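Standup, Tuesday
Yesterday: got the pipeline producing C-alpha cells again.
Today: sanity-check two examples.
Blockers: none.

Example 1:
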Amino acid sequence: MSDPSRIKCSVLDIAPVLFGSTGTQALRNTLDLARRAEEFGYHRYWLAEHHNTGSIASSSPAILAGQIAAATTSIRVGSGGVMLPNHQPLVVAEQFGTLAALHPGRIDLGLGRAPGGDPLAAQALRGHWAGADFPDQVREILGYTTGANPISANPVPDEWPPVWILGSSGGGATIAAELGLPYASAHHFGPQNTVAGLELYRRKFRPSQWLREPYAIVAAVVIVADTDAQAQRLAASLEIAHLQMTRGKLAPYLSPEEADREPYTPAERQLARDSFAPQFIGDPDTVRRELTDLVKASQADEIMALTIVHDHAARVRSYELLAELIASVPSAG
C-alpha cells in the first residue's frame, strides 16, 4: 500500500526516436522502460498522441497501452492523452473498453483537445469531419460508459476506465471541474499556468458519479542524474530539439555531442536552456527540492515525469533516481 503522506509518481512517455536509431527501437525502449517503471514502483504509465513528428513514435496510444499492459502486471496504463478531436468518440470508447476488459482495473483514458500535430496531419486525420466541440465529445464518451447513449460501445467491460481531462490552461481545468473528472496539467507545455489552473480546477470542481473530490496530476519534464552538470548535459538533446522545433524541424533527438555541432548561437542555446528552467533537471537533491516546492504551490496529488534523453540507459537511470527521491517528497495533503 502506498504511503498517503508521500506524493504519487507516474511516467509520461512519447516513445522518443533517437538520432541514429529507428521507430522500432523507440517502441522497444518504451516497453523496456514500462517494465522498469513497474519495478521502480511507479503508479501509472501514460502515452501521448503525436502525429507527423519524426522524433516521436507514440502515434497510437491505444495500441501502445495494450502492449504495455500485456508486458506488465500491476502498473496503471493509459493515454496522456488521446487527442479527441482526431477521433470519433465511439471508436475511442470501444478501444479503451476493450483494453479495460482485457486488463481490468489498470486502464486510464486521458483526453486532450490539441491536434497532436501540424495542420496537415490534422486534415489527414479528420478529413472533412470537424468533430463536435471538445466538451460534447467528452460527454459522448461518458455516455458510453454509463449506457446513456442510444448505441453501446462494445465490448462493455466490467469496469470502464476513468476518464481524465488534459490541459495546459484554464480551459481544460474548467471542463474537468464542471464534469467532475480528474485533471492532468501539462506543466511541460505551460508551466506559467500550472498553479492558477489547478486552483481554478479545485475551486470550480463539482462532485460527480465519477469523482467525489478533485484529483490532479502535474506532468513535467524531469531529468535526474548523479550531478547537476550531468543532468544539464543530458538535457542538451531536449534543448536542441526545442530550437529545431521553432524552425519547423521535428527530427530524431540528437545526442549531446551531436547537439554541440548544430549551428545555433550561444544566445539561442541560452534561450532554449532558459525555456526549461521551470522544469526539473538536476541531481536528486535539486529535483527533490524543486518538486517539493511545486507540489506545495500547486497542491498536486501526483507528479508525472516526462524524461527525454538520447541515451536509453541514462533515461532508465533518471527514472530510477526519481523513484528513490520521490519517497521523500511530501504530498500536498
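Example 2:
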Amino acid sequence: MKIVFLIRTLTFGGAERQLVALAKGLHERGNLVKVVVFYPRGPLETDLEAAGIPVISLDKRGRFDVLPFVWRTAKTLRRESPDIVHGYLGASNLLSLLLRPFHRGKSVWGVRASGMDSNHSDWLDQIDTWLESHLAAFANLIIANSLSGKMNAISMGFPASKTIVIPNGIDTDRFTPDPAGRAAIRAEFGIADNEILIGRVGRIGPQKDYPTFIHAAAIVAKERPDARFVCVGSGPEEQIAELKELASSLPLQERMIWVPARSDMPSLYNAMDLCVSTSAFGEGTPNVVAEAMACGVPCVVTDIGDSAIVVGDVNAVVPAGEPTLIAAKVLERMAMIESGSIDHGALRARIVNSLSMHALVSRSESALQALISGQRGRFRRVRKATT
C-alpha cells in the first residue's frame, strides 16, 4: 500500500509518537509510507528519517496561511498519489477528505481523544470540530484509539458503521524495566534510595490538569516527608510559570522537579515509583499510563477516556478534579509499594498482552487493506475484532 500520513507537526506528543510508531511498523511490513507535516523540524522527524521514511513539509507559515497552504497540500497529495491518506487529528482529517479529488485515495480519519472541553478550545478548533461532525459520513474509514473516543465520536454524528477501535501500541522492548536507567535519572534529580518519586507526565495544558496534581502532591507531602514529585512535559511558558508559582505557594518548591519533554522517557518512568494521571478531559488511550506500566510502574488515574481500561484496577481510579481523593489513593499505593504488595511483573504483562506494537500495526494494516480492496465483509470482521 502507498500510505501518506498527514499531521500538523511531529513534536513530543502522544498522537505524534503513535503516528511515528505506526508508520515505522507499516514501513517494515513492506508498505510505501510517507509522512506529510504542516510545520517542519519537529523532533520526531529524525526517528522517521532514520527508518527510511520520507518526511515532507508543507512549510505552513502560520495560522492565517490558509489558501496557499491548502494548494500546496493538494499539489503534494496529487504528486504522491497514495492509496490511503490517513489524517491524525482535526485539520488533517478534513484535508484528507476535502482534497480527495486531487489524491483519489481513501480518506482515513484518526480520532485520538474523547470528550474534549469546548471551554478550552479556540474558535478555529471549534470550527474544526463542527466540520468534522458534519463531514464524517463522507470519510472512508474512521479509526479511534479508544472505546470512549469511538462513543464520543458517534455522539457527535460520526457514522458508527465506519468507525472502528484500534488501541494504541506500546513499544515494550523500549519501555521495559531498567534498573540502570532508574539509577541514572534518580542521581540526576538527587533522589535518595529511601525517597519515593511520584510523577506526572504529559503536555502542559488544561487537558492534563496539572493544578490538581500539584494540590494532591501538597496533601501527600504533609503526610510523607519522603515523597518527591516530578512533572515531565512541555507547554506554554506562561502556564508553566503559573504552575511553578502554585507549587511554590503550597509550598512544594523543594520537593517538586520540573522536566521538559525529552527523548529518554523509559529511564524517566523507571526512576518513578508511582505515576499519576490527573487528566480532566480529552483522553483516548493514554500512552503515559501504558508506558509507565510497561516499565513496571504502578499508576493512579482519573476516570477519563479509556484510562480505567488501561490500568485494569478499579482501586487505582478516581474522579477527575478531586485532589483529596487522588492524594488518598497515592498514599494507599505508597503503602503498597513499601509492603511489597505491588506485582510489577503483572503491570507490565497487562500492557504486553493488550497494547502491543505488533497488534497496533497488524490491526491497522488489515483495516487499511480491507478498505482498499473493498472487502466489506473483511472490514466488518476487523471492526468487530477491535471494538
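Quick observation on example 2: The chain has two domains: 2-169+356-385, 179-354. The radius of gyration is 21 Å.
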